[in-house]
Amino acid sequence: MSKVVFGNKTKISKDVLTIEKDIESLMKSTKVIEEITLDIIEPGDHARSINTIMDIIPISTKVLGEIGEGITHTITGVYVMLTGIDKNGRQMHEFGSSEGILKDKIVLNRYGTPGENDYIIHMDVTLKGDLPFSRDLALDAFGVCDEFIQSIREVLKVEDPRNAEESREYFDKIRHGKKKVVILKQIAGQGAMYDNMLFAHEPSGFKGGVSIIDMLNMPMIISPNEYRDGALRAMT
Question: Choosing a second label site near 114 at 20 to 30 A (CA), which of 4, 101, 179, 186?
Fold first, then answer.
């Protein structure tokens, strides 16, 4: 995408992503969030104040098959950033907050972060005050954000693949007689903002995923293509 704008309906027109700004429907699925604001941050416009960054999320969706197989559509040039605070001014963080000026709190052009020429769809949530800081608060915010992203995914699913700028194929290759290589990745599983989800319905998604905490932090084996396709969602 070369441009992201607000409109009356979420749609993709060539290289322009239009997102619906009316997000009142999202409030129906939460009991702990008091306010949700949505903003579009243009490339270079990073000298702005933000609350703690809860996550940076790419926009991808399954068109065919499950995660790790089939066909995935991905929007490039745009990321979603979720930030949060509660009504009492308590930042949504664990082991250190990241509120402040965005340009001082994010490193661009890295794997998992926006590039300097990318747009950022910024969702900021304000949770009710006087609530104990728990996994439920963080998970509620992640769930609402995922619901918003799903509205974009549904449009992306039906995009004509001939409109794509690039197409890539990835194979889980078996090389007989060669060494078998296993990559070990240690991930967080302590609670609240120190959580990871596996095997959600959508790449880098939330709905349908299982927390590593609820798996009792047991080792999991995933294929290279499952990893590439967003089977692991880090929420730290």
Answer: 186
